[in-house]
Q: What sequence folds into this?
């Protein structure tokens, strides 16, 4: 579970929540296709590039991006998993979290361009943890960030290089990304009271 | 997660599996170039050792340091304990210094339980008298799982001085929790009366090593703890070695896949011959390496959250 969702889920209030679908299955497909194209464009063919998904939903997203990139230009971009639990700054605020696997592609990340992939960019703290984790694992030539949804409310000076959709939100609202690999369907929803 | 780890019985199957899974992830850190995680930065772990130990103390120290905790080593020798300070006063001193976790080894069974009522931090039992040594049992289970793929359903023989062995007690509790079948084997003088009912209703007892060997997946040899014996429990070292020592001939009676474990320190020529200790079936060195990962997992799960 991405940290922003976990953080905001504790701040739901008593009034009945409204649900708004932001991206449907087709929208999500288009967004992933577009980001794949942007990556190819911005990295000049995705040579020496590694996609690292941040669990939970960043992992299938990274795999989808890699398969779209392979479909468009038949380049095989290595995909890995980067668990950031042990680098979080909020460990002491919550019950102990289970650690997930970290799995780097063969060849590691030294001297390569790493693109971090996550579902939602919110406070930026998950990405901060990911940057710290990366520096313990090697020395990438550069690090970029791809997210499906940027919902604002940054608490750190962090921005994404590839954004699927910018969604203005209130802090108390929840952005819920569902992916077929994990949730059985593809959909992005905004939960919360938008009009009060 | 629980607050203290005093006994292997504190862990149910779910928690024990969580420790082993966490240890498996943390084991990868040991093969990285940067063998350090920032996870427990600013936390203090005190190693309080009233009894000699090399591998357990070093293992806990390495584990705490890899998680960036501050480590204070305290050994009874050269401290105020030799001037007559009690365990309680030492505990209050540690409390005043703000220890987040106390790893304690003590010659008296139950000392960690008393300590847990005096300090606010977590207490980890690193061996108390002839009672328990839960992290050893966890690392043994971890070693079995990494060598044989599972713990549930394995038949584990624990051989030797069961009477004085905290390793045996913790292992019986943890392994039966995880679904393994355990048989303790040794001379009748070194097997506690009613050990089965006391630890686990499924525990089997045997006095005949050769009869059990062909049927086991794991044989765990225990050291004969001479320092705790103020009586003679067997006629001679040679007789003990002949009946309960693991030599090459006995090792050949084991099934093809079976592994040989020893918690260390071992007495070569007594409970195990050098041939067996250095064979490919022996996991003795692996156990030490796994100890660091498992203790990292325990420290993380006790101290990592709120």
A:
């Amino acid at each position: 579970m991405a940290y922003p969702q976990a953080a905001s889920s504790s701040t739901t209030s008593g009034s009945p929540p409204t649900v708004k679908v932001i991206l449907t299955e087709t929208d999500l497909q288009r967004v992933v296709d577009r980001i794949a194209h942007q990556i190819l464009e911005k990295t000049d063919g995705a040579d020496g590039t590694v996609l690292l998904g941040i669990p939970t939903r960043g992992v299938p997203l990274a795999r989808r991006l890699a398969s779209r990139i392979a479909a468009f230009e038949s380049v095989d971009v290595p995909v890995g998993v980067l668990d950031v639990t042990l680098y979080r700054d909020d460990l002491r605020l919550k019950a102990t979290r289970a650690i997930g696997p970290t799995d780097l592609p063969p060849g590691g990340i030294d001297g390569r361009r790493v693109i971090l992939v996550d579902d939602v960019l919110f406070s930026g703290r998950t990405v901060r943890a990911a940057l710290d984790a990366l520096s313990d694992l090697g020395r990438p030539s550069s690090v970029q960030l791809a997210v499906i949804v940027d919902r604002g409310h940054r608490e750190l000076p962090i921005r994404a290089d590839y954004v699927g959709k910018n969604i203005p939100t209130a802090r108390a609202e929840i952005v819920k990304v569902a992916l077929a690999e994990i949730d059985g369907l593809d959909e992005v929803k905004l939960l919360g009271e938008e009009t009060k | 997660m629980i607050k203290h780890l005093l006994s292997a019985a504190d862990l149910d199957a779910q928690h024990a599996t969580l420790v082993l899974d966490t240890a498996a992830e943390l084991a990868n850190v040991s093969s990285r170039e940067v063998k350090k995680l920032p996870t427990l930065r600013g936390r203090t772990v005190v190693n309080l050792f009233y009894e000699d130990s090399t591998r357990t103390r070093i293992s806990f120290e390495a584990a705490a340091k890899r998680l960036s905790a501050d480590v204070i080593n305290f050994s009874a020798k050269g401290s105020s304990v030799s001037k007559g300070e009690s365990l309680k006063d030492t505990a209050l001193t540690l409390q005043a210094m703000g220890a987040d976790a106390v790893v304690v080894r003590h010659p008296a069974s139950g000392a960690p339980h008393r300590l847990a009522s005096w300090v606010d931090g977590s207490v980890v039992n690193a061996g108390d008298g002839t009672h328990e040594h839960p992290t050893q049992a966890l690392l043994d289970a971890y070693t079995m799982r990494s060598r044989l793929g599972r713990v549930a359903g394995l038949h584990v023989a624990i051989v030797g001085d069961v009477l004085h062995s905290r390793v045996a007690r913790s292992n019986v509790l943890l392994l039966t929790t995880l679904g393994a079948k355990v048989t303790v084997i040794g001379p009748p003088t070194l097997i506690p009366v009613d050990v089965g009912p006391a630890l686990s209703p499924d525990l089997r007892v045997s006095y005949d090593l050769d009869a059990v060997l062909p049927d086991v997946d794991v044989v765990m040899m225990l050291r004969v703890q001479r320092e705790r014996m103020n009586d003679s429990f067997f006629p001679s070292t040679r007789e003990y070695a002949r009946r309960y020592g693991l030599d090459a001939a006995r090792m050949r009676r084991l099934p093809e896949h079976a592994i040989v474990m020893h918690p260390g320190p071992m007495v070569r020529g007594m409970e195990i011959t050098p041939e067996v200790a250095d064979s490919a079936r022996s996991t003795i060195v692996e156990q030490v390496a796994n100890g660091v990962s498992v203790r990292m997992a325990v420290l993380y799960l006790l101290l990592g959250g709120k």
